[in-house]
Write a structure and sequence with these properties.
382 residues, mainly alpha, two-stranded antiparallel sheet, 18 helices, 4 strands
Length: 382
């Protein structure tokens, strides 16, 4: 099968090239040419969202759709060839500032382009009508269980609108808990899609970082925490054992997804610290009780915060040694350890063992006001 590519002839203006289609031979074809073509994808999507489309006629629209189908063809052609897939993804990420665009974007190009044009009010009516007629007949459309064409665009648009609501003030959001769970479901669904398209964990992590960077940091933390909770509660699966969007769920798949979320969360000490300060201690205790990686990191972080407290004999309590160093007050630290001790038996034993070890390392004092770890053991009743 020969690789069909749109002609690259055209002016230097940010418009789509015109001309006949050309063939690249199967043997000895120039990969660098294809890599150069992939670099045009961000420009194609950018132009489709701009006012430049007001000058588009039906022929220009057809060329845009032809490019989108060509990019989709590249995806279908190279998705089973890891080295070429990685080369295309790397070139695409290098050509634009949005890390969430990667090799899998090529496979969704017709839908992404169609959505951008449908949202663009500058698109002339004639071109818009032609777009609506062409979308249902896009390659891959069929009667299978997976959504295609306009149906897929409508679903992705609804998901985008729902995620965009997270930028609004909380008081304007109806049912914040339901919304948060919906956003977490969307994130898990997209992770399932990326896992099918990008087998390498490193590529999936790059995609996840790009997506979460687009959300305000507190909301990103809340969505990740909700996703981790859903994975343990099994609420991302239907009654038949499949996910809500038709992907087969499994304990191994959920474990890989959780590992990916935890890798993002624990990959930066600053990020994990902000995450722990953002969420309620009861929420963190639940996660620590179900994810051993998180519990160890959480106890280590609490140890660092506790080491910054000093005892003030005049006030008779523990205070921050320096306002810029200690993230938690004595009361907040005590509450967090108390939540951990009220968790599962395993988590309680782990917390108790950590506090006793810290007390021993601090001199194994049994009187108040000498070691913060001694006082915590007495206060929380572990």
């Amino acid at each position: 099968m020969e690789l069909q590519t749109p002609s690259l002839r055209g002016s230097a203006r940010p418009r789509l090239p015109a001309g006949p289609r050309s063939n690249l031979p199967r043997q000895g074809w120039a990969m660098e040419v294809v890599l150069g073509q992939v670099e045009q994808l961000p420009a194609l999507l950018a132009v489709s969202r701009s006012a430049l489309v007001r000058d588009w006629d039906s022929l220009t629209l057809d060329r845009a759709l032809e490019w989108a189908r060509y990019f989709q063809h590249l995806y279908d052609r190279f998705r089973t060839r890891p080295q070429l897939r990685e080369a295309l993804g790397r070139r695409l990420r290098r050509s634009q500032p949005y890390p969430q665009l990667g090799f899998s974007t090529l496979g969704r190009c017709p839908q992404l382009l169609g959505l951008a044009l449908l949202e663009n009010r500058a698109l002339p009516p004639a071109a818009c009508r032609r777009l609506l007629r062409s979308l249902p007949r896009s390659p891959g459309a069929g009667t299978g269980p997976e959504p295609r064409g306009l149906e897929l665009i409508a679903r992705r648009k609804a998901a985008a609108c729902l995620l965009a609501l997270s930028r609004l003030p909380p008081r304007r959001l109806p049912g914040p808990e339901a919304q948060l769970q919906a956003e977490a479901q969307l994130l898990l669904r997209r992770l399932q899609e990326e896992a099918q398209e990008i087998p390498e964990a490193a590529g999936q992590l790059r995609w996840l970082c790009g997506v979460l960077e687009q959300l305000p940091q507190p909301r990103a933390f809340e969505v990740v925490a909700a996703a981790l909770v859903l994975l343990k509660q099994g609420r991302g699966q239907g009654r038949d054992g499949s996910s809500l969007d038709g992907y087969q769920a499994s304990a191994a798949g959920d474990g890989c997804t959780a590992e990916l979320l935890l890798s993002w969360l624990l990959g930066s000490q600053e990020r994990f610290s902000a995450f722990c300060l953002c969420l309620p201690c009861s929420y963190l205790a639940f996660l620590a009780g179900h994810y051993s990686q998180l519990s160890r990191s959480y106890l280590d972080l609490l140890t660092v915060w506790g080491s910054h407290l000093v005892y003030d004999p005049l006030q008779g309590r523990w205070v921050k040694s320096c306002l810029d160093e200690a993230e938690l007050s004595w009361e907040e630290l005590r509450q967090r350890f108390s939540c951990l001790c009220q968790g599962s038996t395993l988590l309680k034993e782990q917390t108790q063992a950590a506090l006793k070890l810290l007390r021993t390392q601090d001199g194994d004092f049994k009187v108040c006001g000498v070691s913060v770890w001694t006082d915590l053991l007495m206060e929380v009743g572990c």
